[in-house]
Amino acid sequence: MAAVKHSKQRQSIKEYLMNTKEHPTADMVYTQVRKFYPNISLGTVYRNLNFLVDQGEAIRLTCGDGSERYDGTTSPHYHLVCSGCGRVFDLKMSPLDHINTLAAAGFDGTIEGHTVLFHGHCPEWSKLVNITTNLTYKLCHNLNSFRTEKIISFLKIKIVIVTDIDDT
Ligand code: MN
């Protein structure tokens, strides 16, 4: 009976990973799966995630900030971490297999693969930055004062609020 429950929990985790583009952390998976299994522990979530990764049914991504994220899309693809909101995005691009050859050319050992993580800003963040820049310019221009820094920090707070709302 316990085994059945456990495999259902694992199935639920797997389905969530396969149906989200969020590249969730274990905590995010935990929050999600608890909606269906309120008694599940974070430890069980971690165990199931490790199992899925070991079985090749999910990928573990180590992001620039050291956080680990999980991906149900197991076919080779590359990611971008948004320096603004911290979310992870899939990139539509061809595999960079030739860089293995480039690496092997200058190395006496064996190259088995590579890890590439792109950094930049997601479309929403880029839009926010543009709006903020324009708004700041207009405000500063109109006010014609020395309060530029105050306005910028105020708008940065606004951005944090906007993206927080966006995430939920
Ligand atoms: Mn992905």
List the helices and strands and how they pair.
Layout: H1 2-19, H2 26-33, H3 42-54, E1 59-62, E2 68-71, E3 78-82, E4 88-91, H4 98-105, E5 117-120, H5 123-143, H6 148-167
Parallel strand pairs: 3-5
Antiparallel strand pairs: 1-2, 3-4
Helix pairs in contact: 1-3, 2-3, 5-6
Residues 23, 71, 73, 77, 79, 90 line the site of manganese (II) ion.
Note the main attributes of this structure.
single chain, 168 residues, alpha+beta, 3-stranded mixed sheet, two-stranded antiparallel ribbon, 6 helices, 52% helix, flat, binds manganese (II) ion
Description of the molecule:
There is one protein chain. With 168 residues, the chain is an alpha+beta fold. The protein contains six helices and five strands. It has helices spanning 2-19, 26-33, 42-54, 98-105, 123-143, 148-167; strands at residues 59-62, 68-71, 78-82, 88-91, 117-120. A three-stranded mixed beta sheet has the order 4-3-5, with no helix packed on it. The chain has a two-stranded antiparallel ribbon with strand order 1-2. A hairpin with a 5-residue loop joins strand 3 and strand 4 (88-91). Helix 2 (26-33) crosses helix 3. The longest helix is centred in the last third of the chain and has 21 residues, at 123-143. The protein is flat, with a radius of gyration of 21 Å. Manganese (II) ion binds at residues 23, 71, 73, 77, 79, 90.
